[in-house]
Specification:
The protein is 69% helix and 0% strand. It has four helices and no strands. The protein has 121 residues and is mostly helical. Keywords: Membrane, Transmembrane, Transmembrane helix.
Length: 121
Amino acid sequence: MSHGHSNPLQHPEVQMASRSSYLAGFVIASLLMLAATILVSGQVLAPFALLLTIMGCAGLAAIAQMYFLLHIDISEHNIWNTVALVMFIPLFVITIGLTWWMFSQLYMRTMPMIPGMPGMH
């Protein structure tokens, strides 16, 4: 694995770039987002099923963008980008989870209790 490329166009990451790859990633992600938008605006699913479907569309769009646009895979010349992604995902999930927990606790502690409201103690 040599790092001494005198010509920037010979770098492996530049060699991976192609118009068809970028177009495929853009089209796949756009179609998935369009599908989620149609499902939400049409209200064709129950709320929980709709949430799961939207999460699935968003996850697939993120994977398509990482593969087609960012070219993140397990090849040797791209391994450090993959390692960075693998380290980022748990930190991202923990951050979102702790933020959700913080705001739910804040809501429970600061909002007035209304008698007879479901879910209130």
